[in-house]
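S.,

Sequence below, as promised.
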Amino acid sequence: MAAVREDLPRGRYGRSADERADRTLRVVGAVLAVALSAMVGWFGYDYIAGQKISAEVIKFDVTTDSEVQVHLEVRKDREATGTCTVRSLAEDGGEVGRLDVRIDGRDVERIDQVVKVRTTQRATSAGLVGCTAR
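The prediction came back faster than expected:
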C-alpha cells in the first residue's frame, strides 16, 4: 500500500516563521529608508536655505610686509547682516593676520568690498575662513 500525502490548505494555519520574518524585515527596511530620505532632505534644505551669507576671495594683494588687501565678493539675502572672517598666512603656513568684516548693506544681494588685513610679518596668501549671519 502506498502512502498518501495530504497537503494542508494554504493560509489556514497562519504564516510560516520565514514569511513573518520576511514581512518584518520589509517593514523595518521601509521605515529606515523613509527616515534616511527625510534626514538627507532636511540637511540639504538646511544647507541651501540656511546660508544667508556666503562670500569668496576674488583676489588678494600683498602691499607691504604688514598689510594685505583682500577683494571679497559677498552674496546674501536682502535683509541679512553678519560677519565674514578673512585671514592671511605666512610662507610657513602660520597665520599672520585676521580680520572680521561686518556685512551690512541692507536691500543689497551682492557686495564687492576691498579690505585691508594688518599682518605681523609678510604674508604670502589670504583666504576666507567663513561667514556667519546675525
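The mean pLDDT is 87.

Coffee later?
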